[in-house]
Amino acid sequence: MAVRKLLLAAVRKHWLAVTGGTILMVALALIGLVPPLIMRSIVDEAIPSGSLATLAARALLLIGLYAGCSVLSLVSSTLFVVTSQKILHEVRRSVFRHMVSLPLEILEKNQTGYLTARMSEITALGPLFGSGAFKTVVSALEFVGVLIIILTLNVPLTFVLLAFLPAFYVATRYVSGGYRRTSKALFQTGGLMSGKLQETFQGMSEVKSLGLEDKRAGEAIRLSSEVARVGIKQGQVAIFGTEAMILIGSLVSTSLLFFSGRGIIAGTFTLGGYLAFSAYVGKVLGPFSYVMTYAQTIQPALGALDRLDEFLRETTERTRYAGKPAVARVERVEFRDVAFTYPARPEKLALAGLSLDLRRPGVVCLVGPNGAGKSTVVRLLLGYYTTYQGEIMINGRELRDLDVLAWRRKVAIVSQEPFLFDGTVRENLELVEGIDGGGALERLNGNTAVATLVARLPQALDTPVGEGGRRLSGGQRQIVAVLRALLREAEVVIFDEATAHLDAEVKDVLRGAIRTLFVGKLCLVITHDSTLATVGDVTVHLEDGRVVGTETSAGEPAPVTG
Ligand SMILES: Nc1ncnc2c1ncn2[C@@H]1O[C@H](COP(=O)(O)OP(=O)(O)O)[C@@H](O)[C@H]1O
Ligand SMILES: [Mg+2]
């Protein structure tokens, strides 16, 4: 399991603390074996001897042992609390890094709410590294030690106790099994529920304008009733298990009382022996009650592990492209007879044998009706999907054999609905790689085209954009995206319906910008706008996933593509 490997690596990083804590716990378990024996000697020897001094000495010894146990327990538990949090942090770090580097084709299969629910579930792994997990192991060791001691105290009584163990075992199995099943269902359904809610909140203005409040809430509510149903089942398992344990425990103590009493009457057993024996009973049952208790906290963790594993087994893009050659200066981008269907829509060809030959420097316009496949060209060019047929060649080498992550840094996109991160425009621009905040921004400051664009933002670069950019108008968001593309200093710049929300003046600025600011680059301009469509050296017409015509800026058919 990929996730096991990741957990082991995290634990190994803190092996010293874990080993130290475990040693302390074993010491604690060993010391804990002694007090019942002292209790026996007090009842069977010190009290009958009539010596107050002996009684006081043994009582003091008992107090000393208990105090020692407390100190050890305090130290080891603290150690585990600190270490488990550090290990969790380690796990979160690895998982976050892994998740964001997964290919889009895998992430897209899940709703974002589902993905974030999986991420926050990592916290549920805590009990796996807490002192509870190690106490369960230590209690199993203790079990063996106690068994040896009680056999020396009273053999028949030990067998009476052992006769009850199968019942404890069955009850423990029942609870941990029930918890495993129900927790898995709870987390799964809970994740789907938060996915639905998140999607609803993201599309709140559509939800309101379409009057979908009740329908959308209804879907989450239906999932909530499923959560409640499974929650009840889980509660019942816990109640039944606890009651069964209490009942079996009462049977054990009554049986022990009866058989000890018989032994004491017959003179084969002592009152002190009974007292010590009873004290050990708790330790014999320790492993069962620990497993029972921790089943309730560990089962959710195990379930979380399973679900994380789904994602951790997938290869990240970081791994997929590690060691592959990076693209040098971009000269030529070709699509050779590329056919592609989206995994989510296997019956429809999004691209059907598309060929394009793009040279740098140059401006190529891509036009065509909705659904023609224009944006798909962009997504494939960025290496978001790798399952296409045919070839996408960068400088004559297939994209899939190149370092796609490095390639993406050479490409800047201005899309129809650019996504901005919560913060100011400046913060969004500074996020872009290779930007030393002020420096690059200031270099752009002197440019009049840039100044016109920035002037359209209410508070210039200090304009807050809101989550996703929703405090800006569509046009303002596109302006930020254009600035972002400028700062990227990319070699390939793609405008995907980038003028959709722009007014005539800004459109003009952008038209000029493509010719001046992005000079020397390979620009791909996807547009419906007839004025912008003339910006290209070449215009390529797309329909139904293939090229249906090409013309040069002079209006002549060009032999560039087929
Ligand atoms: N993520 C997706 N999953 C499934 N089908 C998609 C996806 N994105 C686009 N499509 C489909 O692929 C075809 C081409 O879409 P697209 O390239 O976005 O067209 P456009 O030319 O309007 O940009 C359309 O039929 C569209 O419905
Ligand atoms: Mg599109």
Question: Helical percent range?
Answer: 55-70%
Q: CATH superfamily name of the largest domain? A: ABC transporter type 1, transmembrane domain
- Count of runs of 4 or more consecutive helical residues: 21
How many domains? 2
Residue fraction in strands = 5-15%
Look up the CATH topology of the largest domain: ABC transporter transmembrane region fold
What is the CATH level 1 assignment of the largest domain? Mainly Alpha
Biggest sheet descriptor:
6 strands, mixed
Principal-axis shape equals elongated
Instruction: Identify the strand order in the major beta sheet.
Output: 6-7-8-3-9-10
Q: What would CATH call the architecture of the largest domain?
A: Up-down Bundle
Bound molecules: adenosine-5'-diphosphate, magnesium ion
Mean pLDDT: 87
Radius of gyration: 35 Å
* Low-confidence segments: none
Distance between the termini: 48 Å
The secondary structure category is alpha/beta
How many strands appear in the DSSP assignment? 10
Produce the secondary structure layout:
Elements: H1 2-13, H2 15-32, H3 35-49, H4 52-100, H5 104-107, H6 112-120, H7 126-129, H8 131-153, H9 155-163, H10 165-202, H11 204-209, H12 213-266, H13 271-312, H14 317-321, E1 332-340, E2 351-359, E3 362-367, H15 374-381, E4 389-394, E5 397-398, H16 404-408, E6 411-414, H17 425-431, H18 438-445, H19 448-455, H20 474-488, E7 492-496, H21 504-516, E8 522-526, E9 538-543, E10 546-552
Helix pairs in contact: 1-4, 2-4, 2-8, 3-4, 3-13, 6-10, 8-9, 8-13, 10-12, 10-13, 12-13
